[in-house]
Write a structure and sequence with these properties.
Layout: E1 3-7, E2 10-12, E3 18-25, E4 32-39, E5 46-51, E6 58-60, E7 68-73, E8 78-83, E9 92-100, E10 112-113, E11 117-121
Parallel strand pairs: 2-11
Antiparallel strand pairs: 1-3, 3-8, 4-5, 4-9, 5-6, 7-8, 9-10, 9-11
Length: about 120
């Protein structure tokens, strides 16, 4: 059974950092791509970053490039999203999701989701 558990969210001031974790079970990162998504109140869920299982390449939403870094630890079966220079517009519930193979940014192409973790950027 595929299961994803996010952690690491919280309240941070603008310019601060957080590291989100997505612990996976029921599959290995060698076979499944992991995507990070976020959803702010009143907005659609959007893709933030993903890591492909086929080649380990990572992809980022333009607005987070240079600030967010995605990495995977296959031994721990966990993916991390390091978020630096956070802005108020990064405030959202962040979700990780998994699917076999490639990592598109469309949330509709993922079947397996975690419960989400709240990130609030505010002074």
């Amino acid at each position: 059974q595929v299961q994803l558990v996010e952690s690491g969210g919280g309240l941070v001031q603008p310019g601060g950092s957080l590291r989100l974790s997505c612990a996976a079970s029921g599959f290995t990162l060698d076979d499944y791509a992991i995507g990070w998504f976020r959803q702010a109140p009143g907005k659609e869920r959007e893709g933030v970053s993903c890591i492909s299982s086929s080649n380990g390449d990572t992809y980022y939403l333009d607005s987070v490039k240079g600030r967010f870094t995605l990495s995977g630890d296959n031994a721990q079966n966990t993916v991390y999203l390091q978020m630096n220079s956070l802005k108020p517009e990064d405030t959202a519930v962040y979700y990780c999701a998994a699917r076999p193979g490639s990592c598109p940014f469309s949330p509709y192409l993922y079947d397996n989701w975690g419960q989400g973790t709240q990130v609030t950027v505010s002074s």
